[in-house]
Amino acid sequence: MYNLFVANTSNEWNGDPYIETPDRCISVREYTDEEIAKQYGALSPAQIKEVMQFPCIFAYETQCHKDPKFGYIRRIEKRQAKVKIDYKIIHLDKFLTQSEFEAMGRELDMHGWEYNRTHWAIKDIDLPRVLSAKEIEVPPYQKLRVFLCHSSGDKPQVRDIYHRLIANGVEAWLDEESLLPGQDWELEIRKAIRRTHVVIVCLSQGSTNKRGYVQKEIKFALDEADKQPEGTIYIISVKVEECDLPDRLQRYHTLKLFEERGFEKLLDALRSRAYQLGFTLTSI
Question: What is the pTM of this model?
Answer without folding.
Answer: 0.62
